[in-house]
Design a protein that fits this description.
Layout lengths: L1 E4 L7 H15 L4 E5 L7 E4 L16 E3 H10 L3 E7 L2 H13 L5 E6 L6 E3 L4 E4 L5 H6 L4 E4 L2 H15 L5
């Protein structure tokens, strides 16, 4: 099934969607998670200020959990995280923070000069569209997104992503 999300999403709905799909990943981790975006920031991605997600990661403090910490936790659970982004100074801080926290055996980083593709792909969903994984991309800009849960589409995208950026396909 395809669910199209469009530019009428409010600045609160998109962060909620990202929190939901990443919490689902932490509960039932994929073999491989691909994150492809020309620009990536270490944005707050899970709101744990009420300790709502303490059972997912007991070491998390009452705070907003940043993107790098969520991805690092997935690598520690055995998920291969493949990230493709541009060579750009903006991305360096996020990538360095992630490398310091993640299990390097489960982290694949790819840099490209001319990357325009944007999306996140797991075993159970494919979110793609115009959004970069930055504060503006998630909370300010109006974005056009597609959310796929069709397993045949996901399997096809896994093959495409693996050919371009490595990773695991079962």
């Amino acid at each position: 099934m395809t669910r199209y999300l469009h530019s009428r999403l409010t600045s609160r709905q998109l962060p909620d969607l990202l929190q939901t799909i990443l919490v689902a990943e932490l509960i039932a981790p994929s073999q491989c998670l691909w994150l492809v975006s020309p620009w990536i920031s270490d944005i707050p991605i899970i709101d744990n200020t009420a300790n709502t997600f303490l059972s997912l990661e007991p070491a998390w403090y009452r705070s907003k959990i940043r993107f790098s910490q969520v991805l690092a936790t997935l690598t520690q659970q055995g998920t291969t995280v493949c990230i493709a982004t541009r060579y750009d100074l903006h991305n360096n801080s996020f990538l360095e923070t992630l490398k310091a926290k993640a299990d390097s055996n489960y982290l694949n980083l790819h840099r490209a000069e001319e990357l325009h593709t944007k999306g996140i792909l797991s075993d159970s969903f494919f979110l793609s569209g115009s959004m970069n994984f930055t504060f503006n991309g998630i909370t300010v800009n109006q974005e056009m997104l597609s959310y796929e849960t069709d397993l045949a589409t996901i399997a096809e995208q896994k093959i495409n992503f693996r050919e371009r950026w490595g990773g695991v396909v079962l």
